[in-house]
UniProtKB/TrEMBL annotation:
This is M28 family metallopeptidase. Residues 1-35 form the signal peptide. InterPro entries: M28_fam, M28_SGAP-like, Peptidase_M28. The keyword Signal applies. Gene3D superfamilies: Galactose-binding domain-like, Zn peptidases. Belongs to the peptidase M28 family. M28A subfamily. Residues 321-362 are annotated as: Disordered. The keyword Signal applies. Keywords: Hydrolase, Metal-binding, Protease, Signal, Zinc. Residues 103-309 form the Peptidase M28 domain. It comes from the Bacteria. Residues 321-332 have a biased composition (Low complexity).
Amino acid sequence: MRTPRSFRTSALSLVAAGALTASVLVGGGGSPAVAAASPDLSVTNVTAHLQQLQSIATATGGNRATGRPGYKASLDWVKAKLDAAGYTTTVQSFSTSSGTSYNLVADWPGGDPEHVVMTGAHLDSVAAGPGINDNGTGSAAVLEAALAWAASGNSARNHLRFAWWGAEEQGLLGSNTYMSLLPTADKDRIDLYLNFDMVGSPNPGYFVYDDNAVGNFARDAMTSYYTSKGIPWEYIDVQGRSDHASFRSYGIATTGMYSGGETTKTSAQAQKWGGTAGQQFDPCYHRSCDTISNIDTTALDRNLDMIGHMVWRYADHDFGGTTPPTTPPAGGNLLTNPGFESGATGWAGTAGPITNNTGRPARTGSWKAWLGGNGSTSTETISQQVTIPSTATAASLAYWIRTDTAESGSTAYDTLKVQVVSGTTTTTLRTFSNVGANATYTQASHSLLAYKGKTVTVKFLMTEDSSLQTSFVLDDTSVTTS
Ligand code: PHE
Ligand code: ZN
Ligand code: ZN
């Protein structure tokens, strides 16, 4: 007996797997505390990070340049700090004429994946020296902001991502590579990119990037912050001289801060900022003397707090579009449209299975996911992304399933796999088949606690062979945590 495919053709059309996400998301930081407007970040910690970068350079030939051992050692050290703090880190390698280089990208679990706020700094130095102001300062300040966010227990409305770029000194190669390889959909998810390249120059100025492609909201937030602290600032047109350039050309809002390099401080600038008129903002710019001694700690401290302010502020900014993610009450269902009563809403996968066709009963309501039942070679999936809070002490996927089949015997011809996809790893939690088909709805559940702090995809994957239908009907799904 075969059930023709047309028997249950549905008008629903589902988009490609992965394109939809649950609208209920939680910040990975744990407590739902609202982010403070201006955290006071530790310049002592940043100075320790700079000492670490200096030690790496000293131990590896005096620099941290592309293709030299000091670069990879710097990256490994930053990565280990982020991993220990709970970030999901990714290393992207690429080749340059000076040798292999690497970008380090760190994602804080949680926040709305459709709204990404990104903060970056280049981690490489020139070959001439250890690159402590250029750009140990930006690298260490962004690292400290990321670590402080992890430690804060705040949950972010938006998704926070941090990046340390390779081979900026070779011509923005790392950030250009990242953007050129990032799928368009992921580029479109980035609402803001903040860049920090030299933030502790020894004869400092306070230059705010004013070469934005779209809107000045972040530039204005930065200048308002400086003004509120009584710190004079000037605009600078960075002219594509740092890693925000590829974000800016794509049309992403950007801004950044620069404390000055090879150009000379005027007397008007020395009057408002102090320091030495007629001298370069950084006399050791791109030189061997750009060491741990080549820093103005006051500028570093002020700019660190500015970076903290920007990250905290934009973590919670409303970029529009979707319902704000909220921390669900303990015991709440993290799945969107778990009983399919809103059709395909919230679910990705194959067109058709989510249906109110009466050929099979729903457990509750009238809609269900009817996978299989074709009696011909076929594969169908439905899936949904969900974030398991990092603070969960229990997490469970549950669903009701009813199966009926035209097959007989003890060979599994038709199967439904219940799977969790985490990064590139797919784990099958359970396989149902025609063997033991049961036309009474029963509930099954599996722990998802192994995925706490992660955003995973819950997936139901059906495969049928060439003849004799098996229908796997799902209803009333849930992911709950406590
Ligand atoms: N990108 C330059 C470097 O790393 C520094 C710079 C930053 C210059 C911002 C202008 C504006 O050498
Ligand atoms: Zn430089
Ligand atoms: Zn630089």
